[in-house]
Amino acid sequence: MKILFIAIFTVFIMSGCSEDETKDTSTKTVQIEQKSDKIVLTDISGNDIEVTKIENGFIFKGYENKVVIINFFATWCPPCLAEIPHLNTLQEKYKKDLKIISILLEENKSNEEIMKFINKNAIEFTIVNSEGNFQLAKEVGGVSSIPYMLIYDRKGKYSQKYTGAIPEEMIDADIKKVL
Asked: Distance between CA atoms of 82 and 163, rounded to whole angstroms?
């Protein structure tokens, strides 16, 4: 019985939240007036992160020459919650060379609600909550399951993607490859 419980728990943690649970954000139509190839993400403090599409990647203004991990998530997703301590550890370990930006894929969440979520979960990386979140999800090819992470090297080139909860050691090894 104990082995069965462990097996079921492991499958639950290692899987992502399915497209049905993400309320079909991959097909969401977002009305954003774009004057260029830029997407603007806004963190919960009101700071903008300008994202520019390049061949095979993105430049995140203000984080040039850093490895950037974008992490698509939702506050109600158990695997997303399970990866928070690992992302905190990686952000601290590589604080000079890495920027983790979590992209909230939920509609109608206030920044106050997100701040409570950050405090409750002791989050030490950036969370963005803006219309640009859905545009970026579309630009990366759509997000059908969360958590969904992408790693970009110091020049903004795509390096790695993960779907579902991933062991910290695996992400750490992939960060080291692009440092």
From this structure: 14
Domain boundaries, the chain: 2-178
For domain 2-178, the CATH class is: alpha beta
In the structure encoding, which two tokens stand for residue 22, read together?
A: 């993400």
Instruction: Reduce the DSSP state of residue 157 to 3 states and report it.
Output: strand
CA dist., res. 102 & res. 149, Å (int) = 9
How far, in Å, CA of 23 to CA of 159, rounded? 28
Question: Model pTM?
Answer: 0.82
Q: Could you read off the pLDDT of 33-74 as tens digits, one per residue? A: 444 579 999 999 999 999 999 999 999 999 999 999 999 999
CA-nearest of 148, 156, 132, 145 to 54 is 156
Which of these, 130, 126, 152, lies nearest to 140 by C-alpha position? 152
3-state secondary structure at position 53: strand
